[in-house]
Amino acid sequence: MAQKNVHFVSLGCPKNRIDTETMLAGLPGESFRITGDVDEAHVVVVNTCAFVESAKKESIDAILEAAELRDSGRIEKLLVTGCLAQRYPEELAKELPEVDHFVGTNDLNLVTEILDGRTGSRVLVGNPDRRDFDWEAPRFNSMGGFQAYLKVAEGCSNQCAFCIIPTLRGPQRSRAIESVVREAEMLVAQGAVELTLVAQDLTAYGYDLTPRSNLTALLEALAAVDGVRWIRLLYAYPRSFPKGLVDLMAREPKIVPYLDMPLQHISDDVLKAMKRGTNGDTIRRRVAELRERLPNLALRTTFLVGYPGETEADFEALLDFAREAKFERMGAFAYSREEGTPSHDLPNQVPEAVKARRLDALMYQQRDISRAHNEAMIGRTVEVLVEKRSEESELVWIGRTAQQAPEIDGITWLGSADHVRPGAVVPAVVTQVTDYDLVAEPLTD
After folding, report:
1. At 143, is the pLDDT very low, low, confident or very high (cuts 50, 70, 90)?
2. What is the pTM of this model?
3. Which of 106, 326, 408, 426 is deepest in the core (most CB within 10 A)?
4. CATH code of 394's domain
C-alpha cells in the first residue's frame, strides 16, 4: 500500500497541541507520512478548540475550509477531533456530511485505527472521564526540539461558572511522577532544553493521586533530570499553592522565574459569581508574597472582562489592580456566553459593545506597563535560549529569555556570534526594546 500524506491542523491551547503531537507520533510510518502542505495531503485532521465563542468559530472555519477539499475530492478523508467534537458530536455529524469521522478528547488513540481501516464508526466520542488512556504514548515534538510542552494532568475539578472544560475534559487526573520524569528524560534525549509544564490547574497536581502527591514533589524530581536547563510553569490556579512550592522556586535555578497564574478578576462580587473559590484580598496577598520572595519573577496572568453583573465600579477596580500589580505579562478576553455553563443563564448580561470597550481599555493599559518593564531591562544581562535564525537577516537570531514563554509572550532578537546557535543558552545584554520584544547583543566573553 502506498503511503498516505496526513496534514494536521492544531487549534487552541498547549494541552491540545500535546494531543495533536500524540496523534502525529501514533501514525505508522510505513503507511502514513506527515505533511505540512495541505495541497499534498490525502487526509486532513483538524484538532479543535471549544473554550469560548471565538475559538469555536476558528475551529468551524478550519473544518469548513478542509470540508471544501473533501467535497471537491482533493483529499480522501477528513477527521475532526478534540473539544468541539466532544461538545457537539451529533450536531456536527448532521451539519457536516463532508467529515468522515468525529473523535472526542479522550478517544484520540482511535485515530490510527480509523486511518488504517480498523474502525468505520463515524462518531467516536466517549466519556471525557476515561482514565485508561496511555500517558506515555509516543509524542512528536512539534516545538522544534529545544523546547517542549509537558502535560502533567488531564481535566479539571474546579467548577468555575464560565468554563466548559470540565465537561469536555472530565475531572482532574494527574500523572504519576515517575511517568512525567520518563517523558522528560525522553524529551531531553531528543534535544529539549526547556520543559513547559501544563495542566488545566497546575497547582492542584497530585491531589487526586493515591498516595497523594503535589507539584513541589514533581518539580524536585524533574529538576534532577540531567540536561534540563529551564522548567517553566503555566496555569497555576491562585487559590492554593502546595507546601514548599515558592521555597523551591526560590532556590532551584532550573525553575525559571516565571509563573502563569490566571486570576480572572479582583472584584469580590465578580469572583464569587464566577465561583473562583477565592477573593480579592487572597489574590493580593498571593501576588505580594510572590513579589517579595521571588524578586526576579515575571508574573503572567489572564483577566476576564464583561462577566454577567460586572459593573463599571468592578471594572475600574480591575483596572486599578492591574495598574498597581504591574504584571510583566497579561492576557485578557471578553466573557463568552457558553451553553452548558452556570453563567449562561445569569441575569445582567453585559452588552457586547461594553465588553469590547473594557477589553480595549485593559489591554491598552497593559501595553504601557509592558513597555515600561521592557525599558527597565535595557543594559541588563540576560540568558537567551536561541531558537532559530531570523528570516530577515542571517546576522540576526530569534530567541527567548526566561521571562518569555513560548508562543504566548514576546521574543528576543539576538545579534550573531560564533557561539550563537539553535538550542544554546547565550548570555546577552539588552540594547533596545519594543512594547513586547527585546533586542540583545550576545556577550563574547
Report:
1. confident
2. 0.93
3. 106
4. 2.40.50.140
